[in-house]
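#onboarding

Welcome to the new folks! Below is a worked example of what a typical request in this channel looks like: someone posts a single protein sequence, and someone else replies with the predicted structure as tokens. Don't worry about understanding the tokens yet, we'll cover that in week two.

Example request:
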Amino acid sequence: MSEIPSILVDNHRQFLGFLERRVGDRALAEDILQDAFVKSIDKAAELRDPSSSVAWFYRMLRNAVIDHYRRSDVRNKALEAFGREMQDAIEPPPEMRGEICACITRLAATIKPEYASAIQRLEVDGISMDEYAREAGISRNNAAVRAFRAREALRKQVKSSCGTCAEHGCVECACGQ
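Example response:
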């Protein structure tokens, strides 16, 4: 079994090329490969013959790519639904917007810095997704995913901090934040 990690590491470049051709993004391919390496540590004990470890790992990689695309489809559908929801959103009055922004800004400081930055630039400053992607040095799709994750992280913080008033749309922030 100690032979298997060495065999897999020796094939790193081929594995990375395999993934990059399928996902079209080197950084994403590296992420998928690292996750697969981590999973292989637990599952390598199941492998009886080290000579079949490369074929076994390629099967793991194929499954990881399939899982990635499934998750992407779910994310894209969620983003589209959110976009439709935002089309019907009503802008709050200026005095309420200031109070909301102050509360949200305080809560945004408790999430990952790149998420807080995405919330600040997209939601508070109101820049476009394309402009944010350029500023952040990432693709528009990655920016959209980051924005989605940032909103989800912030939503959890608001719900945790404000409790039930977050679900019912509080008008006056008295949650102590």
